[in-house]
Design goal:
Number of domains: 5
Helix content: 25-40%
Number of helices: 28
Largest sheet: 6 strands, mixed
CATH topology of the largest domain: Rossmann fold
Structural class: alpha/beta
Number of strands: 21
Strand content: 15-25%
CATH class of the largest domain: Alpha Beta
Shape: globular
CATH superfamily of the largest domain: P-loop containing nucleotide triphosphate hydrolases
Radius of gyration: 29 Å
CATH architecture of the largest domain: 3-Layer(aba) Sandwich
Length: about 750
């Protein structure tokens, strides 16, 4: 197994690791498995990857090092034969209106170069074709492709006067400072309803450009400029920091539409006159990747053959990994989790570097079993080039891909941190470890429960759904499945818009987490814990807040110090004074049952349940965390470190114990071991038994098999998907040839390791 050498880790103690020693083969795929929170990430990311990155950074001159990310020394004795690590994390592509598939992958830079060299007529160098630079961007929309307009009918109430609050926008109410700029202008009768205004008065109120007032009244500020309500909102609120505070209000009045000048192309009109084979650069950006490939193949200009070769290399990598349906102008913020993950992997497939160690964090997240086959081929190509692949994974299909398996466990948190198995996949199946046993289990199907009602969604037309009719049952557990990008989330969005009753939306969207957010703050149990400590020590509760009196004076209760690096990512390091405990020495001197506040925050939720068993206000929320499978988290773990699946289950923990509700969930099993999925399924059964409806977007076959109803989208992604291939019970889908999910269920049970003896 180790004929090409190995990476050897000695005495790793990072986080919950317990003096771990392990050999990992080079030029092979090693999969790390085990319960959620068992220590897999601590070994792979916080030890191996961190040490590789740290030592690489130290090879640069000290001047350069100050601009590089800082990686602390992991708690490990030594690591031998360690290659340079390239880490592919689950971190989603940031939301940026100017970021597209083309810009993110570097394809747009090459396209600009192509058109500047081969386009006719010549209009300028490559920067002329950029919608992010003044030389190329449309001046009307500033290169965004859209303009925001204000619906005046929702901005004013014509039946009211200014004194009565005719301007309905939240920061323009009577007696606010913005309202005074109209009421004190002397231009209007403040008691006259707006319906009685002349056209000239209405234009003056709503649309007047900035101007100095002649003969202004005494109440008017001497240096102030008058401006109509609409341009004022556009100038001072939309796109500014204040817009964050008025999101809901702006959503009511702002309408977004394609730019009337560039028609969504983002570019100046003269840029679009430059053509290659009667096609301009905007038309190329609107093509899907398969059609872009055809366009490039038909260019015969010798001057640009090297550019075309590089473009084809990048595009072919994306097509090979199943993303050929995406258009180059697709905004990155609209990409699904599965799509972003594959884009990241594709970027490295085109790299010429070898003898590297690629470290991937659950590359199966957001992917249907059909998509995983493409990921498997991509990973094998990376290995064949002479690289070492380390994968932290829970998906059986990718575990089976491993040349070598390392299981960490046996439990989570303090009960984990040991190596419980090393060997090949067949050896894992033959073992009696937790993962080995569960991988051999066949999928079983439940007796379907009967729906209480059905929601009919006729003629859905949005994104890639074209005139789709859907029927979604309520009162049971319904799973919506299909390949990544097939239209699952779009169908749920249509359902969300159709619902007239309250629902609980537990999507994988951000929960507004920051470095001060922890499970205790999110569950709102920090105050009860502070009260317990205050009563036990006869002092004020403010001593036990890391945001107040008890905070460490150095880090102000964050536990880390953050150094902003201008254009670089900020450098985060553990506070040297409190050593990450967040509290000052006096606060840490107060104890309850032998524990100070830092000790309590370092407790796993499972231990905290026992510690606070007598306090219902604390114990009940912790019990809900255990029910959703998050009892391995510590009370003080920053929410910024949680995966999308963990954040969603955290939100679910807060919303438990309701009856008659509709729960919308988006891949709640992300980051979960097979054992933890079983626990989550028991919770789903409890929720349905309590009278709730579950509608789950999911690829996990274990969850799908235990659902009452399956809606399978496809057949493929993007324009090649958007159809309902199958609707019925999960078990019956195995006989439906058109159902990709049904075939995946059948193939899973047909695997040799799951055949009954």
């Amino acid at each position: 197994m180790f004929e090409h050498g190995f990476i050897e880790v000695h005495d790793a103690n990072q986080n919950n690791l317990q003096h771990v020693n392990v050999k990992i083969p080079k030029d092979a795929i090693t999969v790390f498995v085990g319960r959620s929170g068992s220590g897999k990430s601590s070994l792979v990311f916080d030890t191996i990857a961190a040490e590789s990155r740290r030592e690489l950074n130290e090879t640069f001159p000290s001047f350069t090092q100050q601009y590089l990310p800082k990686y602390g020394q992991p708690d490990v004795g030594s690591i031998d034969h360690l290659p340079v690590a390239i880490v592919v994390e689950q971190k989603r592509i940031g939301k940026n209106a100017r970021s597209t598939l083309a810009t993110y992958t570097g394809i747009y830079s090459l396209l600009r170069l192509l058109f500047s060299r081969a386009g006719k007529p010549f209009i300028g160098y490559s920067d002329t074709f950029s919608f992010n630079l003044p030389q190329g961007m449309c001046l009307t929309c500033q290169g965004l492709g859209y303009v925001d307009d204000i619906d005046v009918s929702k901005l004013i109430d014509p039946n009211k006067s200014l004194n009565q609050g005719a301007i309905t926008f939240v920061s323009f109410g009577p007696d606010t400072w913005r309202w005074r700029r109209y009421a004190y202008s002397g231009l209007f009768d403040n008691d006259k309803p707006l319906r009685d205004y002349t056209p000239e008065e209405m234009k003056l109120l709503l649309y007047a450009p900035q101007q100095t007032l002649k003969h202004a009244p005494a109440k008017w500020p001497r240096t102030a400029l008058y401006e109509g309500v609409v341009p004022r909102i556009k100038r001072s609120i939309i796109g500014k920091k204040e817009a964050e505070h008025h999101k809901a209000a702006l959503a009511e009045i702002v309408t977004r539409k394609p730019c009337p000048d560039c028609r969504g192309t983002r570019l100046r009109p003269e840029v679009l006159t430059c053509l290659i084979n009667q096609t301009n650069i905007a038309q190329v950006l609107q093509m899907n990747l398969v059609n872009v490939r055809h366009f490039l193949k038909n260019i015969q200009v010798p001057l640009v053959q090297d550019v075309i070769r590089e473009l084809l290399r990048k595009i072919d990598a994306l097509i090979d990994i199943g993303l050929g349906y995406l258009s180059l102008d697709r905004p990155t913020e609209t990409l699904s989790g599965g799509e972003t993950q594959r884009i990241k992997i594709a970027k490295f497939l085109t790299s010429a570097l070898v003898d590297m160690v690629y470290i991937l964090d659950e590359p199966s997240v957001g992917l249907h079993p059909h998509d995983i086959e493409l990921i498997k081929r991509a990973l094998l190509r990376l290995k064949e080039k002479g690289n070492t692949i380390l994968i932290v994974e829970h998906n059986p299909a990718l575990i089976a891909l491993g040349d070598y398996i390392v299981e960490v466990g046996p439990g989570a948190g303090t009960t984990g941190g040991h190596i419980t198995f090393t060997g090949t996949y067949p050896q894992l199946l033959a073992s009696q470890t937790l993962t080995g046993r569960l991988l051999k289990q066949r999928l079983t199907f439940r007796q379907p429960r009967s729906a209480k009602t059905i929601i009919h969604l006729p003629h859905i037309t949005r994104h890639n759904l074209q005139d789709v009719d859907a029927a979604i049952p309520l009162g049971i557990e319904t799973v919506i499945s299909g390949v990544a990008g097939s239209g699952k989330s779009t169908l749920v969005a249509a359902l969300r818009d159709h619902l007239t009753v309250p629902y609980i939306d537990l999507a994988q969207a951000d929960i507004g987490a920051n470095i001060r957010s922890t499970p205790v703050t999110y569950l709102k149990i920090l105050d009860p814990i502070r009260k317990v400590f205050a009563q036990a020590n006869h002092v004020g509760s403010s001593w036990f807040s890391y945001n107040g009196r008890g905070a460490c004076p150095r880090c102000k209760g964050k536990g880390v110090t953050i150094t902003n690096m201008a254009f670089m990512d900020p450098v985060v390091s553990v506070c040297e004074q409190c050593h990450g405990k967040r509290y000052n020495d006096q606060a840490l001197g107060y104890t309850f049952q032998g524990k100070n506040m830092a000790d309590v925050l370092a407790m796993p939720i499972a231990a905290a349940q026992t510690f606070f068993a007598q306090n219902h206000d604390i114990a009940k929320p912790l019990e809900n965390m255990a029910r959703v499978g998050l009892d391995y988290l510590t009370l003080g773990q920053p929410l910024t470190t949680l995966s999308g699946g963990e954040k969603q289950r955290l939100k679910l923990a807060v919303e438990l114990n309701r009856t008659g509700e509709i729960y919308l969930l988006d891949e709640p099993t992300a980051g979960l071991h097979l054992q933890d999925v079983t626990k989550l399924l028991h919770l789903f059964d409890d929720l349905v038994a309590a009278g709730n409806s579950l509608i789950i977007v999911e690829h996990n076959l274990q969850v799908i098999s235990q659902a009452d109803w399956l809606i399978d989208m496809g057949p493929d992604a993007g324009i090649y998907g958007g159809k309902i291939l199958y609707a019925g019970t999960p078990q019956a889908s195995m006989e439906a040839k058109q159902s990709r999910t049904g075939q995946a269920l059948r193939q899973y049970n047909a695997a040799p390791e799951r055949q009954r003896n």
